[in-house]
Amino acid sequence: MRVIQAGQVTEALTRLGIEKAYKIPPDMLRCFDAALATEKSETGREILRQIQENAAIAAQGEVPYCQDTGTAVIFAEVGQELKVEGDLEAAIQEGVRRAYTDGFLRKSILADPLRRRNTGDNTPAIVHYALVPGDRLKLSFGAKGGGSENMSRLAMLRPSDGEEGVKNFVVETISQGGANACPPLVVGVGVGGNFEKVALLAKKAALRSPEARNADPYYAAMEEELKERCNRLGIGPMGLGGTVTVLAVNIEVFPCHLVALPVAVNVNCHADRHGEIVL
Amino acid sequence: MAEYALTTPLTDEAVEKLRIGDRVLLSGVIYGARDAAHKRLVEALDRGEAPPIAVEGSVIYYVGPTPPRPGKVIGAAGPTTAYRMDAYAPRLMEVGMKGMIAKGKRSEAVKRAMVDRTAVYFGATGGAGALISRCIKKAEVVAYEDLGPEALRRMEVEAFPLTVVGDCHGGDLYLEGRKAWEGKA
Description:
Number of helices of chain B: 6
Largest sheet of chain A: 4 strands, mixed
Oligomer: heterodimer
CATH topology of chain B: fumarase
Distance between the termini of chain A: 14 Å
CATH architecture of chain B: Alpha-Beta Barrel
Radius of gyration of chain B: 16 Å
Structural class of chain A: alpha/beta
Shape of chain B: globular
Shape of chain A: globular
Structural class of chain B: alpha/beta
Order of helices and strands of chain A: EHHHEEHEEHEHEHHEEE
Distance between the termini of chain B: 22 Å
Number of domains of chain B: 1
Number of strands of chain B: 7
Order of helices and strands of chain B: EHEHEHEHEHEEH
CATH superfamily of chain B: Fe-S hydro-lyase, tartrate dehydratase beta-type, catalytic domain
Radius of gyration of chain A: 19 Å
Number of domains of chain A: 2
CATH class of chain B: Alpha Beta
Strand content of chain A: 25-35%
Number of helices of chain A: 8
């Protein structure tokens, strides 16, 4: 049994949380370069240039990339041969608390959805645990913006809706809400599982690198096709018209019941702040 | 597409010449307010009270910034999505607000009020919080301090880069821009 201290989790997460708010990941920066090269609208190109300049200013570490520094979402994969000395959940929450406080990030989390009092430190983070083989702890972190989250959708399709039904639902979601979600977007799509599983798949997909295609060639081709269809909508950077609406469509799938075809679309804005820690 | 340098407060004459797609560099005093501050502003107006800002010719920026680092004016300060303020915007235009800065589509009621009251909707680049913070030279909370990031702020801006996304002639760049580029990728 390998042993780590809960305090190590807090420290690593504090560092990662602050870093991501200021430094947009390199895969996103490469996508911005590619977008600028392909965007045909002058207004769209001007927005993309502003996005690039914004990334460069934020990377200096004085001002975060976006004022919505997000909900902290963490996928924790806990190795079965690892013992965490102390309280893992408390350590994760403390890491998030310190990142948002010490990093001068915005505290956007309300203690109650209807009575709407701010918790003041951006906790609680939303944490999803999975037990996995091995003796490591892997934390996949995302600071997920609220505006794009609001444009996300879920549907329980009929099996007869098939592949076309799934694809149409994705394109329809971007057609309806894409302009409000701060495009160019990274679109996370979950297919299969059940009602709650499909939402988790979509979230995982939304936080996956925009450069990583699905390992299954069937879904990788669908990702490319959906990217093209979304970009033909004409929504463009910030919704002002153009040929780059999405940077990537990421699909994650899971087996499902024979009567079901669940699909979920989790929309991520260009402030796609994702990263990993392995302890 | 024309380019203009404008200074607040905005006049009807300045607003009337703006068309969707125009680029504007805005300077002067603007007010930062979002959901909760809008609710309180409109409630104050409905009670017949004077609002805590100079409404005539004003420009309201839908923003909830990050906290400033010590010695800094403000943190990241990009626009939030506008539709959540659609319920309040027409009431503010009634009393003389001339401009809104935000991102995303507006309701028909807001667009109608912009035509009736000669007002303009400017789009700022969502997510460009660091870039925009450089244009904000002064910021202070003037009301509703208890709302934290949602408090009402008075800001002095210099050359804030904006695009006209809704004009007082009924133009809507979210519709027109998309129409122009649909199927062109």
